[in-house]
Amino acid sequence: GRKLGSLVSVWVPLALGFELGVTHVGQGISKSSDPAAAARAEQLLVESSSFITHQSQSLNQAGAGEINPSPGVYDWSLLDDRVNLMRRTQGQKLSLRLFTAPLWMLSNSSDPKSSLLPEHYSDFAHVCKLAAQRYPDITYFLVWNEMDGFANKTHFFPAQYIDLYLHVYRALKSVNPALQVGGPYAPISRFQLPPGTPGEVAGPWGTVSPEVLNLLRYFLRHAPADFIAIDGHAGHDVTTMQPIPTPLASTAIFPAITKWLYDEMHNNPSAPANMTRAPIWWSEVYPVPCLDYWPGRNWSQATDRAVWHTMLSDLKQQNLIETLLIWPAEANPNCILGIYNDTSQPDGGYPTWSYEVVKDVMTAGNG
Question: What is the pLDDT of residue 113?
Answer without folding.
Answer: 81
